[in-house]
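Practice problem: predict the structure.
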Amino acid sequence: MKDWFVYVLRNPKGTLYTGISKDTVRRIDEHNNGTGAKFTRGRGPWEMAYREGPFEHGDALRREISLKKDTKLKVQLKIIPD
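Answer:
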């Protein structure tokens, strides 16, 4: 089933975090509440910077890896709008 999304979060310092989830709203809440990934704890608040999908699980994992290597996208996403 195509119910997975790839997302990129950004914090106020411009740090990016990439992940996959079926429910990105719930997942952002987990990251902001300290119950998400270890990397995001204490580095928030996090906001959605980018999202793609839906994908099948394997496709979402492959796309996540691809986004992590995409330096042009990272530069664009690190720019924090005023």
